[in-house]
Structure formats: structure tokens, C-alpha cells
């Protein structure tokens, strides 16, 4: 995870040695971006705190993939939206849920809706405005549900279980 | 109604396990039918997160009450928020506890525990502290990559001119969208990075089509994490999901910009 930041620092180090003027312009430009982000980032933290206070991972598990058709779709979408942390942390749980019978469509809806992150909205709105963010969010949710429908229709549950001996 | 008893063994004569999170088995008893099943606790061998795994197992089995030796306040809270009551401080065999529970001997103890838990909640600042800690960790984990991305954008601003970008991106919506979608599908990570990159690209006159495609495919399509997705959910699922997401969300990106332009045109 720290390889990327270290790489960026090395690039800056080299640039300051060979092209100090350009490197200074780059650093100043980055500083301006960070300054502009301070207020939205503070809001991000407050929203994160609120979500952590009121939503628990166990509740997500309870929501996920339950019920038939419409209810299951909505709950899977909500679970995707309120889930936090890197996707790698979620794969073992998704695998487990699949083995317990969660539908492929619900898993796909969950993964698609991870693109909607309520606590990051302040940053997004600061860059793009709320009208754009609203349209993007609505279309992302609807698009994820359509993807879920196609995945459910195209992927057969029996033939895609990973590493299961026949 | 189902109750779960933490146990050291897989039968009714097994002793009650003293710790909920790391007990070897959860013996689930259906009080209506008298049936029982002993489920191995995935948390028993876990080095971290044992409690949460046992909680998930309990929830998935539709259990209403947990009988155990001891249960941490955090786990008890998780169970309570999911409507599961915990009666702790118990010992003996699974069979003995079932009998006591049927007679109602344990319920009085449960009522007393609920009352004291409610009292604790009123004065408990632990939950707030826990949430603050968890948010701080989450927030701190965002920062190294986010700051690195911003530092790179700074260099991008210093070295790349609008003319250069215009020469790469054609300006036609379809091609711009495809460029954005390809970039967004290859890279991965927290979506906050895509907002910052997209926002800064807009300042370089990159079209909203390309930026929207970049943002929407950043999370929905993931080539970098494809091997992990295949390992967890199967090759066919992962390939089909990513392929459909790429095609559909590329189209959706165009649609979003068209709708946005229509609304802005109407408002202005």
C-alpha cells in the first residue's frame, strides 16, 4: 500500500534535483488542491463517524441478499452503499454468502453499489455540484441493478463455484 | 423459536463454553420442534475478529437468544442491535441449560441483564469513542493514497498542458467516454481518488463524458482486483460481471452527461 506514496516521493525527489522550478509548481498546485479539499474532507470525517455510530457490519450481513425479488434487490443495494473498507476485505464474506445460497444477482448488485459512498458526497459535490452528483448516484444505483439482473440471468449458480471438487 | 448455546462439544451433553467468540460450537436448538444442530464456530480458530464471525453465524441461523459463559460488551451490543438477547454467566451442560430455559429459570436473569445493559447504554460513552476510533482509522487509511494522487496531479498540472490533452482526447463523446472507461476500469482503489482526478481533469478541459466514465467505472469495473474476485466468486461470475459492467456503465456515463446537460440547459 505504501509503495505508491513512496514512488511519488521518489519522483518528487528526482524532480527537485533536476527540475526544481517545475517540481515547485507541482507542489504548490497540490497544496492548493488540498486547501480546497479541507472543508469537504472534514464533512467526510463527520459522515464517516455518523455511519460508524449507527451502522454495524453485522447489520449489513443481516440485510444482505435476504428476501425475494424487489426486497432482496433493495437490501443488496443498501448493503453495497453502506459497506465500507477495501473490497478485498469483503470477498471472503461474499464467498461465504454465495455458498449459503445468496443469489448471483444480489452479489453483483452489492458490488456495483459500492461505487455509491454517502460519506464521500461532500468531496464529489465540491467538484461537480449537487445536480450532477444526484444524477450520477441515481444512475449508478439503477445501472448496478440492471447489471445484477444480467449477471443473475447469465451466470449459472452450479457451474461457477470456485475451487469445488466435482 | 431458536436458542444458541456456546459449547465445547457437538452434542447436548457438551459443557457450555465460557467465551462466546471462541467457543468450538454453537449448538442451535429449535424449542418448538426439539431439533438441534451443532455448528462449528468459524471464530474458534480466528486470530482476529472471532466475535464478529460468531455474531454473523448467530444472525444467519435466526437465533433469538444466546446462552453462554461470557460475552464481551461489544459483541453483546452487536447481538442486541440485531434483536438477539444474551444470557451470560452460565455453566453446566447444554441439556441442563435447555431444561432451565424451558422452565423460565434463565429468563429472570435475562431481564436483569437487559436492565443493567440499558443503564450502561445511557451512560456509555464507549460506543462514541469506538466509532470515533474506527472513523479515524478509516480516514487515516484514505490519506496516503489520496495525498499521493494529489501530489501526482500537481505534477500533471505542472507538466501537461491543455493543448496536449486536447491532442490526445478527440473531443467526440463516444471516444472520450471509452478513454475514461478504460482508465477507470484498469485502476482501482477508493472512489475519492477518482473524484479528485476527475475534478482536476475537468479543469484541463477534459470532457465531462470522459470524466463521468472514469468515475463510474472506477469501482464498478475492476481489472486489478479481477483475480481476487475470480478466486472468491468464480471465473464466470467475475468475468461476466466485469464485462457487463464495462459495457453498461460506459453507456450509462453518456446518458448521465446527456441528462445533466438537458437539466442544466433547462435551468439556465
Salient structural properties:
heterodimer; A: 166 residues; mainly alpha; B: 268 residues; alpha/beta; Nucleotidyltransferase, domain 5; 2 domains; five-stranded mixed beta sheet; elongated
Quick recap of the structure?
The complex is a heterodimer of chains A (166) and B (268). With 166 residues, chain A is an all-alpha fold.
Describe the protein in words.
The complex is a heterodimer of chains A (166) and B (268). Chain A has 166 residues and is mostly helical. Helices cover 77% and strands 0% of the residues of chain A. Chain A contains 8 helices and no strands. Chain A has helices at residues 3-18, 20-54, 57-63, 69-82, 87-99, 104-113, 121-128, 130-154. In chain A, helix 2 (20-54) packs across helix 7 (121-128). Chain A starts with a helix and ends in a 12-residue tail after the last helix. Mean pLDDT of chain A is 82; it is low at 159-166. Chain B is α/β, with parallel strands linked by helices and 268 residues long. Chain B folds into 2 domains: 2-103, Nucleotidyltransferase, domain 5 (2-Layer Sandwich); 160-267, no CATH class. In chain B, 64% of the residues lie in helices and 9% in strands. Chain B is built from 11 helices and 5 strands. Chain B has helices at 50-60, 73-81, 94-103, 105-123, 126-159, 162-168, 173-186, 191-203, 208-220, 226-233, 235-267; strands at residues 2-7, 25-30, 36-40, 65-67, 85-87. In chain B, strands 3-2-1-4-5 form a 5-stranded mixed beta sheet, with helices on both faces. The longest helix of chain B has 34 residues, at 126-159. At the A-B interface, helix 1, helix 2, helix 3, helix 5 and helix 6 of A face helix 1, helix 2, helix 5, helix 8 and helix 9 of B.
Task: Round the Cα radius of gyration of chain A to an integer and report it.
Answer: 21 Å
Flag low-confidence runs of chain A: 159-166
Number of strands of chain A: 0
Strand order of the largest sheet of chain B: 3-2-1-4-5
- Total helix count of chain A? 8
Quaternary organization: heterodimer
The count of β-strands of chain B is: 5
The outline of chain A comes out as elongated
Biggest beta-sheet profile of chain B? 5 strands, mixed
Largest sheet of chain A, in brief, is:
none
Helix/strand order of chain A, N-terminal first: HHHHHHHH
Measured by DSSP, the beta-strand proportion of chain B falls in 5-15%
Distance between the termini of chain A: 37 Å
Broad structural category of chain A = mainly alpha
Q: How much β-strand is present in the residues of chain A?
A: under 5%
Largest interface pair: A-B, 79 and 72 residues
Estimated helix fraction of chain A = over 70%
Amino acid at each position: 500500500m505504501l509503495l505508491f506514496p513512496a514512488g511519488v516521493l521518489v519522483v518528487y525527489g528526482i524532480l527537485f534535483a533536476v527540475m526544481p522550478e517545475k517540481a515547485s509548481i507541482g507542489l504548490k498546485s497540490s497544496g492548493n488542491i488540498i486547501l480546497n479539499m479541507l472543508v469537504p474532507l472534514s464533512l467526510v470525517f463527520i459522515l464517516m463517524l455518523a455511519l460508524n455510530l449507527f451502522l454495524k457490519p453485522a447489520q449489513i450481513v443481516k440485510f444482505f441478499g435476504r428476501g425475494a425479488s424487489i426486497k432482496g434487490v433493495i437490501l443488496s443495494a443498501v448493503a453495497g452503499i453502506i459497506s465500507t473498507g477495501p473490497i478485498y476485505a469483503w470477498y471472503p464474506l461474499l464467498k461465504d454468502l454465495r455458498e449459503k445460497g445468496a443469489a448471483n444477482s444480489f452479489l453483483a448488485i452489492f458490488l456495483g453499489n459500492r461505487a455509491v459512498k454517502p460519506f464521500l458526497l461532500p468531496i464529489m459535490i465540491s467538484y461537480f455540484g449537487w445536480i450532477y452528483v444526484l444524477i450520477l448516484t441515481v444512475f449508478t444505483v439503477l445501472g448496478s441493478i440492471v447489471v445484477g439482473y444480467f449477471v443473475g440471468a447469465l451466470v449459472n449458480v452450479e457451474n461457477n463455484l470456485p475451487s469445488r471438487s466435482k | 423459536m431458536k436458542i444458541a448455546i456456546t459449547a465445547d462439544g457437538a452434542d447436548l451433553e457438551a459443557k457450555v463454553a465460557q467465551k462466546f467468540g471462541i467457543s468450538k460450537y454453537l449448538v442451535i436448538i429449535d424449542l418448538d420442534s426439539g431439533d438441534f444442530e451443532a455448528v462449528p464456530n468459524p471464530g474458534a480458530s480466528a486470530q482476529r475478529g472471532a466475535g464478529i464471525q460468531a455474531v454473523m453465524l448467530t444472525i444467519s441461523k435466526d437465533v433469538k437468544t444466546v446462552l453462554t459463559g461470557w460475552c464481551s460488551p461489544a459483541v453483546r451490543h452487536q447481538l442486541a442491535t440485531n434483536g438477539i438477547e444474551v444470557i451470560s454467566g452460565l455453566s453446566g451442560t447444554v441439556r441442563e441449560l435447555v431444561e432451565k430455559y424451558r422452565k423460565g429459570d434463565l429468563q429472570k436473569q435475562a431481564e436483569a441483564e437487559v436492565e443493567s445493559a440499558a443503564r450502561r447504554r445511557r451512560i456509555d460513552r464507549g460506543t462514541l469513542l469506538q466509532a470515533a476510533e474506527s472513523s479515524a482509522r478509516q480516514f487515516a487509511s484514505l490519506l496516503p493514497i489520496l495525498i499521493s494522487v494529489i501530489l501526482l496531479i500537481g505534477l500533471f498540472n505542472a507538466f501537461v498542458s491543455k493543448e496536449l490533452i486536447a491532442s490526445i482526447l478527440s473531443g467526440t463523446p463516444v471516444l472520450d467516454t471509452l478513454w475514461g472507461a478504460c482508465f477507470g476500469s484498469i485502476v482501482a482503489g477508493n472512489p475519492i481518488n477518482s473524484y479528485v482526478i476527475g475534478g482536476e481533469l475537468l479543469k484541463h478541459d477534459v470532457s465531462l463524458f470522459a470524466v463521468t466514465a472514469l468515475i463510474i467505472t472506477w469501482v464498478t469495473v475492476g481489472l486489478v482486483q479481477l483475480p481476487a474476485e475470480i478466486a472468491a466468486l468464480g471465473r464466470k461470475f467475475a468475468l461476466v460481471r466485469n464485462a457487463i459492467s464495462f459495457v453498461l456503465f460506459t453507456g450509462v456515463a453518456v446518458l448521465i452527461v446527456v441528462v445533466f446537460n438537458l437539466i442544466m440547459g433547462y435551468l439556465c
